[in-house]
Design a protein that fits this description.
The structure is a single chain. Helix content is 16%, strand content 35%. It is α+β, with helices and mostly antiparallel strands and 299 residues long. The chain folds into two domains: 161 residues, no CATH class; 117 residues, Ribbon (CD59), CATH 2.10.60. β14 and β15 form a beta hairpin. It is globular. Keywords: Signal. InterPro entries: Sleep_regulator.
């Protein structure tokens, strides 16, 4: 064995255990592939596996390395069903985040709560629990692998029986419902229908106020609402995706572009959306370069 090979093997042995075991479950429910905008994440990783297996932690083949070391998992209501997204948190973002290894370790950050008026059907086999709609509990969780463990983002799993007593199931999580709730504007406008201005009188109470503003299939849209959790914390992200829309039995794929913002101040979602810094750079930098090149050639 030459000196280089020996030193390389020695460096592997001396790696900190946290670096050697930084793997996360990386997957999402199949429904999210065509409705990625509901995750509020700007990036959909190309190698993300969309599978029904994402609802459990039994498929070890869904694990992948995570350079940032912070794993994420979330439960999201979609079409009357619980859907999942799990992965390395940095893989979903193109901007800085406050959810770093330093503030997620050693105690995971986990929040849950009722998702407004959303309900979902029990997706367990008939006869075990029943078919009555259950009030939906949305959840977000960030974690860092401890010691020699890996794949820490496998704790959130749907079961109608467990959600009947979410306080017991989400042990170690914070229920935003018990925190001081904020008053938020509650309205929607799309395709010329609805009124959702900053002065809209309808309100709701929630831990986070949310605002989604952009366009769907070229039509201006804005939604203001209350949510119990936020996958971005108190921040914004620009989302571009295609979302499926069923019209008269025909599934249409419509372009969706919007700024998703979450805030925690009173009526804070009545304000104009704050565009992410990274998105501004993506717009401004090409303009600056074009001017520099133009003046350079002119000279």
């Amino acid at each position: 064995m030459n000196l280089f090979s020996f030193n390389y093997l020695l460096s592997l042995l001396l790696l900190p255990s946290s670096l050697a075991t930084d793997t996360c479950y990386s997957c999402a429910s199949p429904e999210l592939e065509e409705h990625w905008e509901v995750t509020s994440f700007p990036l959909k990783p190309k190698d993300l596996v969309f599978t029904e297996d994402c609802s459990s932690s039994k498929n070890v083949q869904l694990k992948k390395p995570c350079n940032s070391g912070v794993c994420y998992e979330g439960i999201i209501p979609l079409n009357n069903k619980a859907t999942y997204v799990r992965g390395c948190y940095s893989d979903f973002l193109n901007q800085a985040t406050s959810y770093t290894r330093a503030n997620v370790s050693p105690t995971p950050i986990c929040n849950y709560g009722m998702m407004g008026k959303q309900t979902f059907q029990d997706d367990m086999p008939l006869g075990l629990v029943g078919t009555a709609p259950t009030v939906f509990q949305a959840a977000t969780r960030w974690c860092v692998n401890a010691g020699k463990t890996d794949g820490c983002n496998k704790e959130l799993t749907y079961s109608a029986e467990l959600f009947d007593n979410p306080n017991f199931y989400f042990r170690g999580c914070t229920n935003p419902g018990i925190l001081p709730a904020k008053t938020c504007v509650d309205c929607s406008h799309s395709g010329g229908e609805g009124d959702c201005s900053a002065n809209t009188p309808t309100t709701c109470r929630g831990t986070y106020c949310a605002k989604y503003e952009g366009n769907l299939n070229g039509d201006a849209m804005v939604v203001r609402e209350c949510v119990p959790t936020s996958p971005l914390g108190e921040d914004c992200a620009w989302i571009e995706s295609n979302t499926d829309f069923v019209l008269f039995g025909i599934t249409l794929s419509l372009p969706y572009k919007a700024n998703h913002c979450y805030c925690i101040g009173e009526m804070c979602n009545a304000n104009s959306s704050r565009v992410p810094y990274s998105f501004l750079i993506s717009l401004i930098l090409p303009l600056l370069l074009s001017r520099i090149l133009h003046f350079g050639y002119s000279a």
